[in-house]
Structures are given as structure tokens and as C-alpha cells.
Amino acid sequence: MINFEEEIKKFQPSLEVDEVEDAINNNNTSDLADIFVEMIREAGTAGENTDEML
């Protein structure tokens, strides 16, 4: 019969899992909200520049 407590004590996570975790945590990707905020900023800046030219 399997002794689950012993098996859990022996468990060591795969290095691949650790590498994936680091890559995900260090990845600075934009989500849709970030993209919309940037678009609004750019549109606002473009509007301000147009007004200054007049």
C-alpha cells in the first residue's frame, strides 16, 4: 500500500516548473486594460498637440 505521507516528503518539484514560474513572474506583459489606458493617453496627447498648433 502507498504511504502518502512518505511520498509527499520525498517530493521535489521539477526544475521546469520553477523556470516557468520565474518566467511568468518576471514577464511584464500588458493586459487589455493597460492597452486601453495607453491608447487614451496617446489620444489625449495627440489632441493637446493639435490644439497647440492652432
Give the radius of gyration.
25 Å
Q: Which structural class should the secondary elements be placed in? A: mainly alpha
Helix % is over 70%
Biggest sheet architecture: none
How many angstroms separate the termini? 84 Å
Give the amount of beta strand, in percent. under 5%
User: Given the C-alpha coordinates, what overall shape results?
Assistant: rod-shaped
The parts where pLDDT drops under 50 for at least 5 residues are: none
Mean pLDDT: 82
Total helical segments: 3
Task: Report the order of strands and helices.
Answer: HHH
- Structure summary, number of beta strands: 0
Supply the number of structural domains.
1
Summarize the structure.
With 54 residues, this protein is mostly helical. 76% of the residues lie in helices and 0% in strands.
Explain how this protein is built:
The chain has 54 residues and is mainly alpha-helical. It has one domain. The protein has three helices and no strands. The protein has helices at residues 4-10, 15-26, 32-53. The longest helix is centred in the C-terminal third of the chain and has 22 residues, at 32-53. The N and C termini lie far apart (84 Å). The model has no long low-confidence stretch (mean pLDDT 82).
